[in-house]
Amino acid sequence: MTGELLCVGDIHLGRRPARLPAALGLDPETLTPVSAWGQVVELALERGSAAVLLAGDVVESENAWFEAYGPLERGVRRLVEAGIEVCAVAGNHDAVALPRLARALDGFRLLGEGGRWEVHVLESPEVAGLRVAGWSFPGRSYDRDPLEGFPALDEREGPVVGLLHCDLDASAGDYAPVRRSRLEALPVDAWLLGHLHGPSLGPGPRPVGYLGSLVGLDPSETGEHGVWSLERDPAGGFRAAMIPLAPLRWEHRTLDAAGLGGAGEELDEAVLGLMRESAAQAAAASPALRALGCRIDLVGRSAAWRKLAERVAGSRWEELLFEHQGVSVFIDRVACRVDPDIDLEALAAESNPLGLLARELLEVRNGGPAWPSLRQELEEEFRRALHGAGLNRWVAGRMDEEDLRRALREAGGQALGALFDQKQGDGA
Hints:
five-stranded mixed beta sheet, alpha/beta
């Protein structure tokens, strides 16, 4: 046995990754959280870890109880038989399912059931005196600070690792909002958090942050995912390191349109080269990788902007599937965000519709005096469209400024390019 703790964020057993192509050529079950959980168990056994800590949302939902029971039972049994403890807290997804599973699984220790803090002393002699403080969601939502009722801890009794599913740095909300400053003020040596799926655990001697999802469950969950190794360092702090073992990875890449002409073959080759590059980098970072999904944004300025946009819109990118260095690579989406190759500043000096549109685009790009009114106008237009489509749950709250700015810039750039091309064609 070693003094290592393997720490796992949101697993979501019972959920399958979204947007996988039917013709991928792999058994989709090998890319699921169930498969990745099996890899965590094998890794803990191979390394002789002292304990495995789970930061909530182990199970997708109460409906996934039956599907989660078998994989979780097999993994927990093997770990416990090898002398490796398994401790977990419940998150908002499994506030009902995880306590049921804990009662059914020998050796599975659920901490803080019912929203009451609990401190457990790990039994392995390699981590003698190490305590785990955990709090579990008492229901599907919790709108108060979970640190209320945190127990008094004597630092002389040994180091403490906090295990919590929460909404970090949120001032309010339904998912246990808590301030980082409050976490850091407590006598806890490391805070291992669940809830957000992007890993953010800090590298310092007192790491605080999200473990992230075990597998990227949709294209928004990009980059490395896996399990974290947590160990004491010689100076008395903790050292956290990601071990990427997710079988599926998502990447967003940008491709500069500069140098690409209007010929479709140039674009196809550039996209293929970018995918190969992404696959090589991802495979080098994680030998466990089986599949890579790419979203590619074509960006920059080009005189061939219209032909590039037509090529992107008319191509069957979903059919581009291949294997590179043992990784199955596919495209989820290609988007054309190329602007016409036009000098906006020069055009803005003209007293015609082109000049007016160019000036408005400069206001959007530079955040000039007219930007607030343009922003409000676009936001209201979006709200009307969402309301008309019956998507009322997206209407509340302030919309993201950068998303609105990008939408205006892209739409305005396309309109400007069309007008400019028409003017050039007319010989004006």
